[in-house]
Records
---
Amino acid sequence: MKNSRIKSSQWRWPLGVGLFILIILLVPLVGGLFWQYLIANVLLLSLFALSFNVLFGMAGYLSFGQGAFYAVGAYVTGLLMLAKLPLLVSILLGFVAAGVLALILGFFCVRHTQVYFALLTLAFGMMVHAIVWKWSSVTGGDDGLIGIPRGSLGVPGVISVQLEPFTNYYYFLVIVTLFAIYFLYRIHISPFGLVLRGIRENSGRVDFAGVAARKYILIAFIIAGLFAGLAGALMAPLEKTVGPAVAHWTKSGEPVFAALIGGPFVFSGPILGALIYIGLKEFIVRLTQYWLLIFGIVLLTIVLSFRGGILGFIQEQIQKKRSMY
């Protein structure tokens, strides 16, 4: 009986992943531009939430400053695209810029733990927001960057794919995001991820075992910043505009909610949380002008009702039933 359960779980996981990817790729064929835009936002929030979860779900460090790296990736990519640099180069440099910022801020943040770490990340995040808001000669201030092109993708003289049509950019975003999610999954199941989970459970024992916990947290902080920056970099050509709101602390709250809704201790939890977050928001906005109040109440109800998120709750119930037999 036990062996049959193991075998069934071994094929259910890849089957579910394959079905998920197939649905995403078929969206342009069966749905309009609205559904493509909606799925693109779900994927970006999934990547954003998974980057946050490298710190929170894996290492137990709550960061309220992920919006800063998201904004840096978006602004650097937007500025470079407006300067007529190629799309891939612009996104790559936005990705790297977010990582450099994460290295600098992480050097100060990882020296603290618990509430002090959270407040320090929040302070740094609001500092980035203030810079974006005030440095109007570069960032556009309150107006932000407008008219960001998507450009083309291809090898000069060999093949060139125009990404200005939304569907073409949708496929590009899907491919890049799925590869990034897979990379984060490899981190999750790696020895590095195991050490991070050990730090989450008991950092003192990890230090006693001779592992430099602070170094691992700094690396996790940089990884989280890099992939938050990648999400922002991909968002800039998608929206064709970037404003100061992407650096606000409320933007940093989105991955927190997505992770808590889906389950921070299950890798796919933030992905499910992102789907629920975006779906509920789109649904409630159409019902009432007081959508923000209703949306907040619904999110809090979900978070408080499901211990460990929805997937965490389901996993716990399955384990309880198995223990009864």
---
Amino acid sequence: MKRIKLRFEDLQIEFTDRDRALSQVSEWADRGTGIPVVIFGPEGCGKTAFLLQATAMLKEKGYDVFYLHPLDKIFEAEVEEVDVKRAFLDLARRAIAEDALGRVAWAIFDLVREVLKRRRRKVAVIADDVFQAIGLDKASIYVKGLLNMLEHPVYDYEKMVALVVTSEDLTRYEIGRHRWAEILPMWNMSREGFEQLYQKIPGSKPPLEEAWKLTGGNPYMLQELYRKQWNVDDIVTGIIEAKALRRFVTSMKEEERGWLKEALDDPDTLFTRERLSLLHKLVEINLAVSDMYSRIPHLWIDLPPLEKDLELGIGKYVAWQTPLHREAIRKVL
């Protein structure tokens, strides 16, 4: 299997680790997904990189692949039929020009039907953050459309894979109300995988253990540290400004600020009835992840985190997105 190269600031780095996740893709390629697979996880944990590597793998295994990442305005159609590929790309160009990116997402159903009309084959639909383009309120409808495409195709197919990634943890609850998809979490990189990525970064840098404790294995945060020349204060301040955390904390009652302080040491302290509203707010602004899955491996993409790792801000039920997100809250408090 060829590993793709990905941009890491000014570097080109080969897709690193995630061996178990890639074996999961190989299994899907061999038998199809059966139902749509919806993947969620912390911002910057590597979901897009994983999808790009999965796309390359599926192409190697003879799949016709439709890949769409509306937020980055990237649309690809690796299909034999030149006219279908041209129609897809023309539609994408018009949608970009008219600021109607969701239109391409909905068109996928007609395009898959068209290629299957020509001949029976293996088809994959890979959609990255598509719910942002169509509206989070339409997420479950879109997933139901993918399910219908898999279960009740107008034209028969050999195998089909449907993978959808979302950065919106709240989307999971909307989709999870129905049994229309397999919803799997993905976490930051394992300690071993993170070390492999860290070693590929040239030049002077903080010790591995320090980088691990700052990022919790989040590859985007490692990239941000590299980009900011390892200036931790710049990263923390950037999170504070981007998420308007001073206003967020100032709006709280004194009791809530006390709860937040407790959660810095153990995020699971938020998993109580009276504190759930605060937890919901943290999830909403992508500072924390709630309702962490049981650490049973087959329930996760790649490897699950430890059952509890308070040094990295990971509880059994609640976790900070990364230790740097936790430090941003600590600084504001």
